[in-house]
What does this fold into?
Amino acid sequence: MSNAPGKFTTHCGNAVPAEAFRPALGLGNPHLQTLWGPLWRKMPPMARQRERIWLEDGDFLDLDWHAPANEQADAPLLLALHGLTGSSNSPYIAGLQRVLGERGWASVALNWRGCSGEPNLLPRSYHSGASGDLAEVIAHLQRKRPLAPLYVAGYSLGANVLLKYLGETGEASGVHGAVAVSVPFRLDHSADRIGRGFSRVYQAHFMRQMLAYVKDKKQLFIHSGQADRLSIIEKLGSLERMRTFWDFDGRVTAPLHGFKSAQDYYQRSSSQYFLAANRTPTLIIQAADDPFVFLHSVPGQADLAPGTELELHAKGGHVGFVEGSVKQPAYYLERRIPEWLANLG
It folds into this structure.
């Protein structure tokens, strides 16, 4: 089966009807879909409890829990993974936690290293291949909630990490079901795609955020007198004249995380190469007009494991999928994800 867009699900090569997504009137453009959440969606307050966990390398991750009243010990638990420069406060994360709570599910949102409002302690950061951090979080949740079936939903960078983890662990993933949204299956392809056309606006935004992240960490090490950690940042050299993902990943991501180059990082971290080994029931939700992902980067039938479903829509942008109307927007992902997971039984 080709990757022609449409309102269908591919499952082991068979096309079956999927829940219809229709973009909100006036929001058919992929960039309006992509920008609606971060620019115009207003999130009401929601009670959450923060937990800090310590990693094997001495760094920390912050988790934000949202649980319904009278939660049962064996109630389903969902772990939500945000995308690049996001956090647990990203509207798509908070929105999912809210609707899950209304269904009686507990949820916990992971903030990748340095994304919870406080710099992480080590020179290293998070990246699209950080499945080791995800593995530690899942092990922690299994210890804390041993009776709760665990589900995971990842978005963008978080979706890539999730699919990589599922392929690496196979039948030992510890995850009952997973959903991956707007996946950059081939990181090298996405680094090229985001450098084209209007997508360069997103690239410029991400570059400002990522460079500020590194500069802030450098200042932290200077003020705290951590010369050994400061020297690791200083060995990166000048942070000037970085314009593209290829620049940043070659000069920052790769040396900080043990990769030889940007290409080596992309090759070893792209979820495309781990899809066939996945043994966890998984739904992938993708838009053909995603401004971060080429359509030809979306996997075909031969790339998917038997338990993986690919839902490819003609429209939706990147982590968009806004339906309803501009005056009364609704969010496809927040009805589709809980529905699909609940049907796993």
In short: Residues 197-269 form one domain.
